[in-house]
Amino acid sequence: VGKIVESLAALSLFLLSGPAVIILNKHIMKDHHFHFPIVLSSLGQLLMLLITRGSVALGLHELETKQMEWGRYLRVVLLMNVFNFGTQVLGMWSYMFVSVPEIQVLKSVTVVLTMIFAAILVKEPVTALLAASVLVIASGSAVSAVFENDTTRISSAAGAQVIGVVICILGSSLEAAKTVCSQILMDSLKVFDGLYWSSPAFMALTVICVAAIEAKDLVHHPFSGELVGLLVLNSVLTGLIVFSSFWFVKLVGALAVKVVTQARTVGIILISVFFFQESCSSMTYIGYAISLVGIGMFDHVKQRQQEQKKKQEETPDKKTTS
Questions:
Q1: Residue 312's CB: how many other CB atoms inside 10 A?
Q2: Where are the transmembrane segments (predicted)?
Q3: Which of 54, 160, 169, 238 has the smallest number of Cβ neighbours within 10 A?
Q4: What is the torsion angle, in degrees rounded to the nearest 10, for the CA atoms of residue 265, residue 114, residue 82 and residue 164?
Q5: Contact at 8 Å (CB) between 40 and 92?
Q6: Distance of CA 154 to the CA centre of its chain
Q7: Can you tell me whether residue 153 is helix, strand or coil?
């Protein structure tokens, strides 16, 4: 019961924080002309760094993993943060070229890549039906992407559209790799310890890239009270995303997280269409209906796997008793 409650809490936080920060960042970049994706993507990590490092320094929390070997740090933690950094920056950058609905449909390739990486790197079992469900999810999203007819893009130029698509696909590849690396890291660490060890590497990459790319224009950007407030809100929401992602990956694994993300996408699109004047064609909705069928298939397969696992665990117990 305790694990079910914990999973529901992590799921709720994951589902609510993601859509909120996506719409917020779209507003910040489009309406406040804050075209600094590296800064935007790093504020949540900065908050997690201050909370985890500050808690340990003040004696409010004691680490279970007090030391980490350099080899493991470089192979898992640093590599995960390189992937994560690329994911966040490319994700923010894509808002300047394509609409929120189209970004979400293009990111559907992430679930397929995550399945492949998880099978190769962490030996996650992949049955024919599981692979079929993932392909149905991706196919539905591909239909949405092909027939997406957005009229509110920041730029309607074909060149800008191509750039946006390439950025989204590259970001999806990095996100899949990051999610699987997170699972490898979180298999042996508590959530707090994982954040404690991973956030400094992310911030080091941020400082280097901001100094090289964004600092010159950033210092001349006008910061209104409203913009500062939105940036603070961004740091809280993205911090919650970082925390809930680590937490949820630890509980259910990388592939399940990506499938839940696809389900969450439907909510993001509906919100952006009804409240932010984004547009979608009828084929986009048909594509997402197909994706939802795939999500239902995936859930069915996972439930069967859990039932089989329980039976296998109960069988040795019965033999021992007899």
A1: 9
A2: 7-28, 34-52, 73-97, 103-122, 129-147, 153-174, 195-215, 227-248, 255-276, 282-301
A3: 54
A4: -50
A5: yes
A6: 24
A7: coil
